[in-house]
Structures are given as C-alpha cells and as structure tokens.
Write a structure and sequence with these properties.
By secondary structure, the protein is an alpha/beta fold. The protein is built from 15 helices and 15 strands. It folds into two domains: 171 residues, VC0802-like; 210 residues, HUPs (Rossmann fold, 3-Layer(aba) Sandwich). 40% of the residues lie in helices and 22% in strands. Strands 1, 2, 3, 4, 5, 6, 7, 8 and 9 form a nine-stranded mixed sheet that branches. Strands 14-13-10-11-12-15 form a six-stranded mixed sheet. The radius of gyration is 26 Å and the shape is elongated.
Length: 403
C-alpha cells in the first residue's frame, strides 16, 4: 500500500446485487478515461465492499491532486470519496501519521474528535485504545482540545489487514449511476437554462449522451452555436466527451411559416425536431430522446401540446424536468456550472418564429392536418444532409464568448 489512497464510495451501485460488478467496471472505465493524463500517478486496484480504492503511487503535486479531486467529484455514480494517508498497524505508526495528517489542518479548527474503527481484530488494541492514544497526542502536540459532541474537526482512522487508513475530508460526489450503464440517448440541447440541466440529469442516471442543437443561422447569430459549444464543454465535466450535432432548421421554419397555421408554429417545429432526433438516434444506436420540457412553463409545454408534439415519434421521450419548478432548475444549473453560460444573450431558433398567440391546447387531429401541408420527409432528410458534427472533450480549450 502506498502512502496515499483515493477511496471512492458508491451507495446506489452497492445495491445492485449480482449486477454490481457491471456498474463498478463502467465507473472505473469512466474514471480511467477522465484521469488518463495522470495515469502515472495512479494505480486502479479493486473494490472493497461499497468502496473502490485508487492508490496514488508517486509523490503528487498539490495542483494535480486537486485536479484529480475535481474530476472525481463530477463523475456520476460516486456518492462521496476521500484521500487517505496510509501507515502500518502498530499504535506508534498510527499515532505518528495521525498527528502528521492533522497538522496540515491545524489553523482550521480548535476542537477535534477521533473516530476509529478496528477492522483487523488481530492487533493488540481496540478502537477505544486508538482514540485515546491519538487524541492525547494531537491534544499535546498541536494544542487542540477534544470534543466528542460537536467537534470542529473529525479524524477518521480505519485499521485494516496490513495497513491503516487516516483521513478527515470526506468530499461529496454527485451520486447517480455511471454514464453508459443505462444505454444511449440524444439530448435536444438549446442555449437556455433548462435543457443543459435535463441533459445532466440524464447523464446522472447512467445515460451516455449525444447532443443535438437546432439553429437558424444565418437568420440568427453564429454566436448561438458558440454558446451551445460552451454549454457542452461544461457538460463534459460529467461525461468526458460529447458528440454534438449542429442542425440548421431555417428551411423548416420558413416552410412552416409559409404553409401552416401560425398558432402551431412551435408545435410543428418541435414535431419535426423529434423526427430528426429519431434519425440521429438510429445512427448513434440510441434508444431515447431527452428534452428540457417542464410542465406548464411555456405555451409549448402544456399537457395537450406535449402530447401533440410527442405523437410525431414512436421513440421514448424522456423529460427529466417535467415536474420541477424554475427555482429548482436554476439551482441545479448553478450547481453544475451551466447557469452563467445559459444566461448569456443569444438568438434562439424556436424564438425566431414564435407566434404572437401560440396555441396552448392543441388538438391532435388539427395538428396532423397542418402537418399534411408540409413535405416533412424531404424537410427532415434535407436538413440532416446539412447537419455538422463536432466532438467536444473535457480537455478542449474553448474560445471566449464575445458579446
């Protein structure tokens, strides 16, 4: 065992019974890809109960260790983790390393508690003995007081087989399931607040995401595309690498505006978007579409309109935000780092042709009548021929957004 080890906890994976190994294998695969630049420092070992151990095999610079922590923190499937110092199983070794570990935080607390667990029953002392000895040494050498009720600082000690783990900072993860364990999906990604959050939530339930962005360039500014690329870059914190389809829908919008009832413009456009999304899903071997719909938030997101929109495809449409209010969505956007990008000004493809009086309770029969005025198959195929793709990775550097 090396002098430091990164220990990862995964509560939900631990409940998967006989399938647990499948989820752990995918989680480790995701971590290895995200931490590939630091492979010389890390040794991926094995799972122990509800945890996975990664040994830090070299003296690691503080900035690199912090970057590793940031990447692990944003990996779906991890509920929490910590970096532990390791030492032998003698009382002297444990006490010495405990003081050494605690000393680096000496300016952050006045009171402390030692929480010891003796897993190895063969040693000649118990958990209370560890607490008394280590507590006494820290109190004497660092001039801190013991407080077992409400301590400022908690030191954890676990005596295992041939080594002891000593740690104090337990870092929360984002939970969920490892990306890739639930299959693949196509996320319909705009430049707003909602769809990046729905995309993150889909990733956090184990879906591997390919993003699709619909734009109206040159009627809208190319900056709208740059903004979406920035959002995708933020989302790579969780998936690592994302393929982004950039799909021009101006021809579709113009056809809708010319031939159909203006009140249904958004519903008809969204129906065609779902058809395009299905085509992309078939190409990418994805099994679902993910949207940022939140029930009742805008005119196109009433029950009647969502039903009239979804009827356009037989593919599963997942709406992670459907029952969430805007406050909750904004809080999540801030937490995952997409909010500040989402509120940058941009031209939205849907907003370009929004009618003054949009339909809020669309009748499916009438929607289909309006659809018949369009050559939808030609519009879909023609649009897909003009689509571009770009791969965005968490290691890419993105240009600044120019207002």
């Amino acid at each position: 065992m090396t002098n430091k080890v990164l220990i990862i906890n995964f509560e939900e994976i631990y409940l998967k019974g006989k399938n647990q190994k499948i989820f752990i294998k995918q989680l480790v695969r995701n971590l290895k890809r995200k931490l590939a630049n630091y492979k010389n420092y890390l040794d991926f070992t094995k799972a122990h109960g509800g945890s996975y151990f990664i040994e830090i095999i070299e003296d690691i610079p503080e900035n690199i260790l912090q970057d590793i922590i940031d990447k692990v923190k944003n990996t779906p499937g991890i509920t929490g983790f910590y970096v532990a110092d390791t030492t032998g199983i003698s009382m002297e070794e444990i006490a010495e390393k405990s003081v050494q570990h605690t000393r680096q935080y000496v300016d952050e607390f006045e009171s402390f508690a030692v929480i010891a667990k003796r897993i190895n029953k063969a040693v000649g002392f118990n958990s209370m003995d560890i607490g008394r000895r280590v507590g006494s040494d820290i109190s004497e050498k660092l001039n801190k007081k013991v407080d077992l009720t409400k301590p400022d600082f908690k030191l954890y000690i676990k005596v295992r087989g041939k080594y002891t783990l000593i740690y104090s900072k337990i870092i929360p993860g984002i939970g969920g399931l490892p990306v890739g364990t639930s299959g693949k999906a196509i996320a319909m990604l705009s430049g707003g607040i909602d769809s990046p959050v729905s995309t993150f939530m889909a990733m956090n339930r184990g879906l591997h995401i390919t993003a699709a962005h619909f734009h109206s360039v040159p009627k809208t500014s190319p900056q709208s595309i740059d903004k979406v690329k920035m959002l995708v870059k933020k989302l790579t914190d969780f998936q690592g690498q994302i393929k982004l389809y950039l799909i021009p829908v101006l021809d579709i919008q113009q056809a809708i505006a010319k031939h159909t009832d203006s009140r249904l413009r958004l519903i008809l456009l969204r129906r065609i978007m779902l058809k395009i999304g299905k085509k992309i899903a078939e190409k990418e071997k994805a099994k679902a579409l993910v949207t940022g719909d939140s029930l009742g938030q805008v005119a196109s997101q009433t029950l009647e309109n969502m039903k009239a929109t979804e009827e356009a495809t037989d593919m599963l449409v997942i709406r992670p935000l459907v029952a969430l209010d805007k406050k909750h969505i904004i809080e999540t956007a801030k937490k995952i780092g997409t909010f500040d990008v989402s509120i940058l000004p941009h031209d939205d493809a849907c907003g370009l042709f929004t009618p003054k009086s949009p339909e809020t309770k669309a009748q499916l029969k009438y929607v289909k009548e309006q659809c018949n005025k369009l050559d939808i198959e030609d519009l879909v195929n023609g649009t897909l021929q003009k689509a571009e793709t770009v791969i965005i990775s968490d290691t890419d550097k993105m240009p600044e957004y120019i207002l």
